[in-house]
Design brief:
By secondary structure, the protein is of the alpha/beta class. It is built from 7 helices and 10 strands. It is globular, with a radius of gyration of 17 Å. The N and C termini lie close together (about 10 Å).
Length: about 240
């Protein structure tokens, strides 16, 4: 694991964006695995600006997102499809048919998951997967458990995840209780992983993930076994680690 220590969120965002931009430049038809949440928004902002400035071309890029709430349609302003359209896709020259998010409107979980696995496989796998981390160590919506889930699956969200996400909804009862998410195998098959973390509140779980034992109780710990992980984190997030 290669660790890039940055001063703050802004510097972390720019470094992460530079790594993603390099991937697009070196392989214009690459497959990017993308994430939602507040952490990658800054990086997406840089990518949008560089595209507008003519420095980046996304016309051949394909994307697959980690996850989506089950039960939310793409036009719902809390769906991850809506988030991606707003925070990245609408600002770059990417073909919308080349962007993929699990189908939250599909009520048949088995169908939704098998279709998404087929999409990823059909593109030849992921060149660079962007990841954040939850306070309990989840990546995507792979929650702590007794085993590592392999491929795209439907997950029951934990109370901690529901609590963390309720700020985006009018009330806690509105937060979906299930989501479709790539599995650990989907993530680990990515050729490169870009792991971005910011803030003192993530310091303890980051330490467990990088320096603790590999265990499904801390899903992100499995990244220790991947051959090409780039961790970009600010000083606050890295404050408990022995660098």
């Amino acid at each position: 694991m290669k660790i890039y220590k940055t001063k703050n969120y802004e510097e972390m965002s720019k470094k992460a964006a530079q790594i993603m931009a390099a991937q697009v430049t070196l392989k214009p038809d690459c497959v990017l695995g993308l994430a939602t949440g507040s952490t990658p928004v800054g990086a997406y902002g840089h990518l949008i600006q560089w595209c507008k400035d003519g420095l980046l071309d996304f016309s051949q890029v394909k994307t697959v997102n980690l996850d989506e709430y089950k039960g939310l349609t793409p036009d719902n302003d809390q769906s991850y499809r809506y988030f991606m359209n707003k925070n990245l896709f609408s600002g770059i020259n990417i073909s919308m048919e080349n962007t993929h998010v699990p189908n939250g409107a599909e009520t048949d979980s088995q169908k939704a998951c098998s279709q998404y696995n087929a999409i990823i496989a059909g593109m030849g796998g992921i060149d660079l997967q962007l990841l954040g981390i939850g306070h309990d160590g989840h990546i995507g919506f792979n929650e702590p458990g007794d085993s590592f889930e392999l491929e795209t699956h439907c997950v029951d969200l934990t109370p901690l995840t529901i609590e963390a996400n309720k700020r985006f909804f009018e009330k806690a009862e509105d937060v979906p209780r299930q989501a479709y998410t790539m599995g650990i195998r989907n993530i680990m098959l990515a050729r490169k992983i870009l792991f971005v973390i910011s803030g003192e509140d993530k310091a303890e779980i980051l330490k467990k993930s990088v320096e603790g034992p590999v265990t499904p109780q801390v899903p992100a710990s499995v990244l220790q076994l991947h051959p090409d992980v780039m961790l970009v984190a600010d000083e606050a997030a890295l404050s408990l680690m022995k660098l």
